[in-house]
Amino acid sequence: IVCAMATCHSLSLVDDELIGDPLDLKMFEFTGWSIAADNAMTLAPIRPRGHGKARDHIVASATPMIVKPPTVHFSQLRPGLLPEAPKVELAVLRSFDFVSNLRRMSVIVRRVQKVGGVASDDTGEGYAMANRWFECFVKGAPEVMRQICSPASLPADYDAQLRAYAHHGYRIIACAWKRINMSTSKVYKLKRDAVENDCSFLGFIVFENKLKATTPAVVRSLRRAKIRQAMCTGDNVLTGLSVSRECGLVNPSSRIFVPRFLSPDDDCPQSIMWEDVDGSGVRLDPLTLMPIPATAHQPRHEDSGLDPPLFAPGSTGQYELAVTGEVFQHYLDYASEQTLARLLVKAQIFARMSPDQKHFLVERLQGLGYTVGFCGDGANDCGALKAADVGISLSEAEASVAAPLTSHSTDLECVLTTIREGRAALVTSFSCFKYMALYSLIQFTSVSLLYSQVSNLGDFQFLYIDLAIIIPVAVFMGQAEAAQTVSLKGPTATLVSKKILTSLFGQIAIQAALQVALFRWTHLQPWYAPPATDIDEKGFRSYDNTVVFLLSAFQYLIVALVFNAGRPFRAPAWRNRPFILTLGALALFNIWLTLAPSPWIRDLLELMDLPPVARFVILAAAAVDLALTWGAEEVLLPSIARAWGRLMHAKARHHAR
């Protein structure tokens, strides 16, 4: 079995570094063997004494991979035991790569030993064959390996041992071996089917699935956020179930039902039996996937009109499903859409899934309206990673080519990071959109009011608004950090949602109303004077212009602060220090501009010298604007959006009737 572990893999030596599947790498490192750095070695048959020419010949184009056993020093040998010379090594002549639907791989090897006088290089050394036969090593899933092994080689407790290892959460690979007695030329022409049959079972290679320290915390966080999680793996269903229970993916109090095909002598040979993995005797109806008593063995017809049967006495109503790839494919091919939908919604573990089945699973879940994220680290996950709405590769190997996102760490914390950052980015994008839209409409309101008095904003006023306020505020608004936790409810996913539209139109009304109110108040004051008609001499300097400009300068800052509110998807606004410092500096400058501006800045911005009462009224209006804008955004407008949604839902139900 050590020889199988040393040769039956897909590893390659690149720049003195082993490259390949991580599982194969761990298995090979465990053996202590090594791959020869120079694989282009000459092979020659050994001629037994008394024989003429050797019957075998080596195909000249063959470049076998040589694997060497660990070096044994004389000090490590037992007294009286001499080392064998020369040391026997293994040459991998042919390799049949792992195929997903076969779930196994195999190699053909020959034992060789280093000899002199057979190589054409300067060393004068080469490899000679140590015997006259070939050996085949096969490894793969235990369920399929028993089909290619001779029954006599299988131990009586094969299934019991497999089940015991799987129950402990171990990953299990079965190994087999056979001798091939034929010429080298025929060996190179052998088909895969001829190689992988009538083998002798060697044993199980058992890997421990060590749970990463962060996995349970990630699962708990996703569960608190009401984000459904499911395991999709190529491992044994019991292995997947054990790992799921360990990390908290499956509720410890839930019953888990696993499927199996009924034996051919049953009344329904194509049906499936769902059994409680803990052996309670409760089963599921294969069509409704509802629990039935242990005495009811016949599947219920979906269109019979009968009520779903109840649990057996003493059983619990909370249960989940663990599905195998074969059963999943069976439901895809033969079950109704309703039954398949029930399976997809209820199943928590999908085991022994092929790459195509993983791909189909993602597409079917999307068909039910789910937004699907998929994590994977192997070549078998490429199809699912590409089909998922969010594909995250935990490896920088093959899976990273298909996945939109690649994590530099191999733990699942990247899932939480992706959700948090994605939600924060979406909310920030909407906030920036609303801010830029509201900025335009605030300025539109200011210009419209001034146009009514044959006036407008001055050139430097436009310049101050656009360059000093809007550009830095908009730039720093986009630097908001994501929240540290995943919230229970997700953000709005469309710009034309009720929440976005209600917020936008509600804020437009508030900002316009305050500008109109202050504009009308100014006209009622005894110190008010209409704008001059001679624009060429005085420009747009007027009380209307000054009051509207100063209030709007505060409004641009207020709506930016309100739209940049953090929770629940972003960190608090004060964590965005450049944004807060920019708002603070601009707010202080606006206050100074309102209360006591220098003559030169007043002349530059074409501002009137307002009475003290007018200055304080503008500041009071800005404070009222802040209170109304914040209160409406946090309380009033969301309530209106929810009421609007309930009204639309009620109308839709009424029309559906």
Automatic annotation (TrEMBL):
InterPro entries recorded: ATPase_P-typ_cyto_dom_N, ATPase_P-typ_TM_dom_sf, HAD-like_sf, HAD_sf, P-type_TPase_V, P_typ_ATPase
GO biological process terms, semicolon-separated: intracellular calcium ion homeostasis
Source organism of the structure: Caulochytrium protostelioides
Membrane topology: Multi-pass membrane protein
Statement: the UniProt record of this protein carries the keyword ATP-binding: yes
Keywords (A to Z) from UniProt: ATP-binding, Magnesium, Membrane, Metal-binding, Nucleotide-binding, Phosphoprotein, Translocase, Transmembrane, Transmembrane helix
Family: Belongs to the cation transport ATPase (P-type) (TC 3.A.3) family. Type V subfamily.
SUPFAM superfamilies according to UniProt: Calcium ATPase, transmembrane domain M, HAD-like, Metal cation-transporting ATPase, ATP-binding domain N
Transmembrane segments: 424-442, 462-480, 500-521, 547-566, 578-601, 613-632
NCBIfam families: ATPase_P-type (TIGR01494)
Gene Ontology CC terms: membrane
Name of the protein: HAD-like protein
Keyword ATP-binding in annotation: yes
UniProt subcellular location: Membrane
GO molecular function, one term: ATP binding
